[in-house]
Amino acid sequence: MGDWRNQLYFGDNLDVLRNKIGDESVDLIYLDPPFNSKADYNVLFKEVDGTPSAAQIHAFTDFWHWDEVAARTFHELVTGGNA
Fold first, then answer.
1. How far apart are CA 8 and CA 1, in angstroms?
2. Within a 13 Å sphere around the CA of 1, how many CA atoms are in the beta-carbon half?
3. pLDDT for the residue numbered 45
4. Residue 23: band (very low, low, confident or very high) from pLDDT cuts 50, 70, 90
5. Which residues contact 5 (CB under 8 A, 6 or more apart)?
6. 3-state secondary structure of 14
7. 32-81 pLDDT, tens per residue?
8. CA atoms within 13 A on the CB side of 28
9. Strand locations in 1-83, DSSP E?
10. CA distances from 80 to 49, 69, 74, 83 (A)
């Protein structure tokens, strides 16, 4: 897994965490888009035969926003507090 710092991966988060990242080796900012869509998201179900079901439940409302605290924390983690 190498001796590196501040590595960025693009991919499925579980695949990357299981196959690219050593256990107990990372300070991680985890972000999962979409961001600030201001949308409500539902869990959709399928019928036994696989066809879409009318049944659904509310999963979450996206209201996240990037603020000064997030920006400062990101900067400190990426630079190690330098610069």
1. 13
2. 14
3. 93
4. confident
5. 80
6. helix
7. 666 667 788 889 999 999 999 999 998 888 777 788 888 888 888 888 76
8. 14
9. 40-46, 52-61
10. 52, 16, 10, 9
Which amino acid, 61?
T
The region that residue 13 occupies, defined by phi over 0 for left and psi between -120 and 50 for alpha, beta otherwise, is alpha
41, 59 contact by CB (below 8 A): yes
Segments making up each domain of the chain, as ranges: 13-79
- Of the candidates 51, 24, 55, 23, the one whose C-alpha atom is nearest the C-alpha of residue 42 is 55
What are the beta bridge partners of residue 52? 46
Distance separating alpha carbons of residues 35 and 29, to the nearest angstrom: 14
